[in-house]
Structure prediction request, 170 residues.
Amino acid sequence: MTEIVQFTARTLVTDKPVPFGAMIVETKTGKLLLKGLNAVAKENDPSSHAEVRTVRMACKKLKSPSLRGYTMYSTCEPCPMCMANLLWAGIDRIVYGATIDDANRHCRQIHIPATEVAERSDMTCEVVGPVERDLAYTLFTHPNMLRAFKAWGNASRSKHVSDNGKRAIA
Ligand SMILES: [Zn+2]
Prediction:
C-alpha cells in the first residue's frame, strides 16, 4: 500500500494531481506487474479510473483477459464500475486504502461498497480494506489536491448529503 500511495503522491506536485492509483502484483510472490493512475482528465475518458486502466494495461501486457493469480492494491476502494471490471478480470484479491466515503468528502461517488458488488456477482474476489487508510487518505488532503478538487468543480457533495444531511446509503 505504501508503494502505491508514494507512486500516486508524485502526481500531487504536477499540474494534474490525482489521489487514485492502483498496482497489480502476483498474488503468490508479490512481484510487481505494473502501476497505473487515474487519467479521466488526461484522456477525456470517464472510465479511465486507476483500477480500470491498470487492469487494461495488465491484460494487454499478459495478452490475456484474465488476472487470475494477481492481486490489486488501490489507494481507494474501487467504485462499482472498477469493482465490476475486477470481477470480470477474475482477479484474486483487491486491497484498498481509503474508502468510498473518504473519497466522497471531496468528489462525487456511487454509494455501493466494493464488497456488495463482489457478493452480488457470480465471481469470487477477496475484498480487503481499508488498509493503511490514514496514509491513503493523505492523498486526498494534500493542499494541491484540495485545490484540484475545487477545480474539478463537481461539488464534492453527493445528492445524498445535500438532500437530507446524510447519505441514504452509508
Ligand atoms: Zn472506479
About this structure: The longest strand covers residues 70-76.
